Amino acid sequence: MAAVRLEQWTPDHDRRADIAVRLEDGTRLALEAQRMLMTDDAWRARHRDYARAGIVDV
Question: Which intervals hold domain Competence protein CoiA nuclease-like (predicted)?
């Protein structure tokens, strides 16, 4: 069974996922919900931070 946590920080505290999921195989997911539009640059920075932490962002 997957583990689910709300508002979970990345290990380096650069990002906080709205919902963090760890799958049985160890895969880590960050689910984000945005109220406002993001610029492409802001999305890329967020994506890079998650990727550096080994987390797949959705």
Answer: 3-56
